[in-house]
Specification:
Blueprint lengths: L2 H6 L2 E3 L5 H12 L8 H9 L11 E6 L2 E15 L2 E13 L8 H10 L4 E5 L3 H9 L3 E5 L2 E5 L2 H7 L4 H28 L3 E5 L5 H9 L5 E3 L3 H9 L8 E7 L2 E13 L2 E11 L4 H14 L4 E8 L3 H6 L3 E3 L8 E6 L6 H5 L5 E4 L13
Parallel strand pairs: 4-5, 9-16, 12-13
Antiparallel strand pairs: 1-2, 2-3, 3-4, 3-9, 5-15, 6-15, 7-13, 7-14, 8-10, 10-11, 11-12, 13-16
C-alpha cells in the first residue's frame, strides 16, 4: 500500500498542532506518569537525534475525527553494515487504542515507519507488537541475552528473581572465588597498562575509538562523539549515568556507561553501553567488575548482543541469561522493500552489536 493510501486511512507524520490530541491519547494509553508525556524527553528524543530528518520527527499518528487512535515512533540512526552506512530507525512506542485494534491501524503505522528508512529495527517489544510485526513479515532475530556477574552472592540471592539451579550455582561458587576472579583479571588489565578513568562527558577522542572498534562488528549503530553526546550527555536523565574511559597512556581503549539501579533495595550496576578496541573487551569488563565490587554493588549486569563478548564474559564469571531478568528482550528487523540485500547481513544475529543504549531499552531502570 502506498503512502497516499496510508494517509487516506488517517496516518501522517506528527506536526506541532497534534500535541494536545497526542497527549490525550498517551495519557489514556500509557498512564498519567508516562515518560512519553514529559516535554523535555519528547524534545530530546524526537527533535534532537544526530540523524534527525528534515521532514520532521519520526513519529506517526493515526487519527479518526480529530482524535489520535494510534502512534508509532522511531529513533533514526546511522547503521554500519559492512563497509557501508545505511539509514536505520529503531521502532518504539507502537500503541493503538483498544477499540481500534485488529482494524488495520497497527499495520498501517508500522508499514509507514518501515517505508521511511532502509532498515527498521524493534527491540524489547510487547507481545502484541511482536505478533503484529511477525504477521507483517519482519525477521525474528531471537532474544538479546542479559549477562549477570554476581558480586555478593548472599545479598544477590535475597533479591534475585531466580531460584533453583542458578541459586545453587551462585551459592556453590561463593563470594571468595568470585572476588578472586575479579581481582585476577583486574590485575591482568593493569599489568597491560589499562586503567579506568571516570569522565564528566564524552569528547572527540571517542571518534578515533569508534573508527577502530567498529571494524570488528559487521552490523552496528554508529557510536561516535555526536551520538554519545546526544544519548548520554544531553539527555534529560544524563545525571543518572556515569561515564568511563579505559586508558593506556593517552589512548582510549574503550568506553563504558554505567548506571546504578536499586533492585529491591540493593544496588546493581547496569552497563548501559560500551565499546572496546579489538582485544580489550576482557580488560574493560574486569575493571568494571572490580569497580562494582569496591563500591558495594551486589551484581553487575549488561544486556548485549555481541559475538565477541560471550566467551570473555563467561570466563570472567558472567552468567548468560538468554531470557533476561524477567522477560525476553526480542529483536526483529524489517529491510525496506527496495533494500532486499540487507536481509542477509542484518537478518543474522551473530553479525549484530547491540546494547541497552540502542532503541529505548535503557530508558528505564531495572526496578521500574
Amino acid at each position: 500500500m502506498s503512502v497516499i493510501d496510508w494517509k487516506q486511512r488517517g496516518v501522517a507524520r506528527y506536526e506541532p498542532g497534534d500535541r494536545a490530541a497526542l497527549e490525550t491519547f498517551q495519557r489514556a494509553q500509557f498512564g498519567a506518569d508516562a515518560l512519553q508525556l514529559a516535554p523535555d524527553h519528547f524534545h530530546w528524543l524526537f527533535e534532537e537525534p544526530p540523524e534527525r530528518e528534515h521532514e520532521g520527527p519520526q513519529l506517526w499518528l493515526c487519527k479518526r475525527n480529530g482524535a489520535v487512535v494510534g502512534q508509532q515512533g522511531g529513533i533514526p540512526f546511522a547503521l554500519k553494515v559492512g563497509e557501508r552506512t545505511r539509514r536505520g530507525s529503531w521502532a518504539i512506542d507502537l500503541m493503538v487504542a483498544p477499540e481500534w485494534r485488529l482494524r488495520g491501524v497497527g499495520p498501517a503505522l508500522s508499514e509507514t515507519h518501515a517505508g521511511a528508512t532502509d532498515l527498521a529495527v524493534s527491540l524489547s517489544m510487547t507481545e502484541a507488537a511482536y505478533k503484529s510485526y511477525k504477521r507483517a513479515g519482519w525477521l525474528d532475530l531471537g532474544n538479546i541475552p542479559t549477562y549477570l556477574r554476581v558480586i555478593d552472592p548472599q545479598r544477590c540471592l535475597r533479591v534475585s528473581p531466580y531460584g533453583g539451579g542458578l541459586a545453587r550455582l551462585v551459592a556453590t561458587v561463593g563470594k571468595p572465588a568470585l572476588a578472586s576472579v575479579s581481582l585476577g583479571y583486574g590485575l591482568s588489565a593493569r599489568m597491560l597498562g589499562a586503567k579506568l578513568v571516570e569522565i564528566g562527558s564524552f569528547d572527540y577522542r571517542v571518534d578515533d575509538l569508534w573508527e577502530s572498534a567498529s571494524l570488528q562488528h559487521p552490523v552496528i549503530a554508529r557510536r561516535d562523539w555526536a551520538f554519545l553526546n546526544w544519548r548520554f550527555d544531553s539527555t534529560p536523565t544524563g545525571g543518572r549515568h556515569r561515564r568511563f574511559y579505559v586508558m593506556r597512556g593517552e589512548t582510549v581503549l574503550a568506553y563504558v556507561v554505567l548506571r546504578v539501579d536499586q533492585w529491591k533495595g540493593e544496588p546493581v550496576g547496569v552497563v548501559c553501553d560500551y565499546l572496546a578496541r579489538p582485544g580489550w573487551l576482557m580488560s574493560t569488563f574486569s575493571l568494571m567488575t572490580e569497580l562494582a565490587r569496591r563500591e558495594g554493588m551486589v551484581a553487575l549486569m549488561c544486556r548485549t548482543l555481541n559475538a565477541h563478548a560471550a566467551r570473555p564474559l563467561s570466563m570472567m564469571g558472567f552468567l548468560c541469561l538468554k531470557n533476561g531478568l524477567r522477560t525476553p528482550t526480542r529483536m526483529m528487523v524489517r529491510p525496506a522493500l527496495d533494500q532486499p540485500e540487507l536481509a542477509g547481513s542484518t537478518g543474522d544475529p551473530k553479525n549484530w552489536f547491540v546494547t541497552a543504549a540502542d532503541s529505548d531499552m535503557g530508558f528505564r531502570s531495572i526496578g521500574e
